[in-house]
Amino acid sequence: MAVARSESVEEGFKAHVAALTPQARRDELDSPVRQGTGLTARQAIALFEAQLDSRAADLLARDLKKDNRSFYTIGSSGHEGNAAVAAACRPTDPAFLHYRSGGFFLARAQQVPGAHGPLDIALGVVASADEPIAGGRHKVFGSVPLHIPPQTSTIASQLPKAVGCAMSIERRARRLGIKDDRIVIVSFGDASSNHSTAAGAIHAAGWAAFQNVPVPVLFVCEDNGIGISVRTPEGWVGAAYGHRAGLKYFHGDGLDLPDAYDAATEAANWVREHRRPAFLHLRTVRLMGHAGSDVEQTYRTLDEIQATEALDPLRSTATLLVEHGWMTPDEVLALYDDTRARHAALGAEAMRRPQLTTREQVMRPLFFHDADAVAHAIPRVPDDVRQAQIGELAEASDRPRHLALQINRTLADLLTAVPEMVLFGEDVARKGGVYNVTSELTKRFGVGRVFNTLLDEQTILGLAIGAAQAGLLPFPEIQYLAYLIHAIDQLRGEAGSLQFFSNGQYSNGMVVRLAGLAYQKGFGGHFHNDHGIAAIREIPGVLFGIAARGDDAARMLRTMAGAARACGRVCVSVEPIALYMTKDLHVDGDGGWLTLYPPPGDSMPIGEVGVYGVGADLTIATYANGLWMSLRVAKRLADEGIAVRVIDLRWMVPLPLDALAEHVRDTGRLLVVDECRASSGIASEVAAGISDRVPGARIRRLTAPDSYVPLGPAANLVLVSEDEITAAVRAVLELP
């Protein structure tokens, strides 16, 4: 029969303490708590209070859950030794915490005047709108004053951005000409250490350190030997991470507070001095199961559970303090009871606090946008300064140029105007990218600002998140649209969610550039000719655009840079590969796809569409390669007397439906030409949105089928073609 293990753990702790023998009182609190340790008695007592707070917070969540008054019962019981890691670090060291690092959170709260760690946790578990970090949106460990950005940390997803933050601390300090010896702490479980996200982040840190790139990050693996019900082989974590290139290994016993403190102090000091990554392997246990709903007895024997409970770190710390004369058993029990009573009162207070009651309240942090701030976020740089940095001013030339070059010029201008901007990705530096879009930028701005990364999309986006949180403006490049799927959680689960889970207090504004979409000739396969954008479009709060022409790309990138810098928006720009070098539109040599460079300051308001023609017979709504094809079709149809108006949507999120609706009202007919797969593009949403806005309009969709793109000429069999666009126009107009 299942037993309430929370009661067993509590009763076991009290019985253990009651059986301890009081020792002669010692009052020299600044002495070591025991011989041979750097932890003083005063520190040990304070950390014990943090450990008790963490345990009481766990028990409170379970007590409230009995009456369905709490919504989160994953606790830190058995991991309270991580409080020692907080004591070994500074309260200004950024910390990306595992969901079992409650001891760390509460110990750090002790270090910062005015912090109310226990109340913050209570407010979180009852989902109160007064909870100071997430505002009732989730229970997370996070606090701006404590320098703890919130994480859900379910699959080590916090590790890549912690590495990025560590690397960016050094880059930002060099840019500002200051000394910044902060380190970054990131904690995670032994089960998470097996995830590819963790392995990739730790590998990336070692890879960078191996090349003498500063990466002051302390990885803290809280090893309790089990992930939900799956056991971690004994000795595995030490074997896997104890001898890694570029990674210093330390071990501490989280069940023995002085040992944990000494190991954490040695590790943190080493990272701070050497500016290199280290791995602190902290022994812990997991008490009371994975969460309140987890019945441990289904996969562990009662003997195993009881043996684990006997290792309770609170028992260990109480024994330490009593046997060395710093506290009596009665004092320990009184402190425990007082802590439990205080948390019960905090729970009652939390239940009196308001909760989120409207959709607008919930979603407010997602779509923060100040158009005026965005328009002024990128400073105007005097022309002589620009010329000294990038050479001839692009707008001074009357020679139109292709998309790839105009993007390059825009990036150069942005790098000149925004000192904290950094651009990075695979092959973007000396090579200039696969398509030469970033050519010469490293030469002009240096490897500190335009640099290559290792081949790992999770690391690239994690670096971007951490860089933004460290005060930089990152422009990461993912080499191909299909490669984004390797790292989509870094964009969706981490970058996109930070403002939501911090109630707008934290942000990681960035502009992610991806080469993508189909129609490359003589080259292909589904990875290089991918046309699926659904994974980007479903991210709440993302700003996502696709510019087809060079002038539009310049203006759009400036808006995105401004939105990232002023509003912390996560922005994604997909650049159509097939149009990078395109020069002509209707006939060879017409130069119809070349554009002049718009001068700095000319940006594209969100929701602005491109309008081609004033035709009254039909509106075509499209984007990217679809725009190029539709304009060609429109010209041929004009020769037949069919007047088509072509609208370049440009913005994928948010879709500019109101702007499009004005044109559909004029023509009464709409053809949506969506080059992406039917289940992955925008055609259905555009059609539905216009149907709502323009009742009675005749609407038709044209999309690619739900197929991967094959190699060679067969690709044309699964891509939207000009002939199909022509036929669809005729169908909407009911022409033969």
Task: Throw out a few tags for this protein.
736 residues; 3 domains; 5-stranded parallel sheet; Rossmann fold; alpha/beta; 7-stranded mixed sheet
Kindly describe this structure:
It is a single chain. Helix content is 40%, strand content 13%. The protein has 26 helices and 19 strands. The strands form four sheets. A seven-stranded mixed beta sheet has the order 9-8-10-11-13-12-17. A hairpin with a 2-residue loop joins β4 and β5 (230-231). α15 crosses α16 (403-417) and α23 packs across α26. The radius of gyration is 29 Å and the shape is elongated. It starts with a helix and ends with a helix. The mean pLDDT is 95.
CATH class of the largest domain: Alpha Beta
Helical proportion?
A: 40-55%
**Can you summarize the main beta sheet?**
7 strands, mixed
Q: How many helical stretches?
A: 26
Number of separate strands: 19
- CATH architecture label of the largest domain: 3-Layer(aba) Sandwich
Q: Label the structural class.
A: alpha/beta
Mean pLDDT: 95
CA-atom Rg in angstroms: 29 Å
Strand content: 5-15%
How many distinct domains? Answer: 3
Here the CATH topology of the largest domain equals Rossmann fold
Low-confidence segments, given as residue ranges, are none
